[in-house]
Design a protein that fits this description.
Layout: H1 2-9, E1 16-21, H2 28-39, E2 43-49, H3 51-58, H4 67-75, E3 82-86, H5 92-97, E4 103-107, H6 118-123, E5 127-131, H7 139-147
Parallel strand pairs: 1-2, 1-4, 2-3, 4-5
């Protein structure tokens, strides 16, 4: 966290963008979201749920890929500048600990008033952007389709 905040301090005048997720099976919806997030600023931070929080949120059979592998896959995505895991079910504590977030990006599967961290980002002068998914891509839906 200290390393990231030092980097963010050096990015004065640049727009810092934050998004988060589980990123268990990377699919086109994830890539579109990350591309949109990166195009909304200069430096994209991706928060990623650790394995314990994924199990609490998605069930005991998830994640399919452990945290280290999910991070490795995300590192290969050209839009991502920094990846940081978090143990909580939501990224609120992580957002509060970041030097600053100018743009918070979430997918259209969230209603703006339900986005965790929105209040904190807006109170510090930032804004929330909702990315409109082109199709209903979701890892959970993909797994259900595979099971059939």
């Amino acid at each position: 966290m200290d390393e990231l905040n030092r980097q963010l301090e050096m990015l004065e005048g640049k727009k810092i963008v934050f998004t988060n997720g589980v990123f268990d099976i990377l699919h086109p919806g994830h890539i579109d979201l990350l591309e949109f997030a990166k195009s909304s600023g200069d430096y994209l931070i991706v928060g990623i749920n650790d394995d314990d929080s994924v199990r609490r949120l998605k069930g005991t059979d998830r994640p399919l890929y452990p945290l280290e592998e999910r991070m490795e896959i995300l590192e290969a995505v050209m839009y991502v500048d920094f990846i940081i895991p978090f143990p909580e079910d939501t990224p609120l504590q992580l957002i509060k600990r970041l030097y600053r977030v100018d743009v918070l990006v979430k997918g259209s599967d969230y209603k703006p008033n339900e986005v965790v961290g929105r209040k904190e980002v807006e109170e510090s002068g930032g804004k929330l952007l909702i990315f409109e998914f082109k199709n209903n891509s979701s890892t959970t839906a993909l797994l259900e389709k595979i099971k059939k």
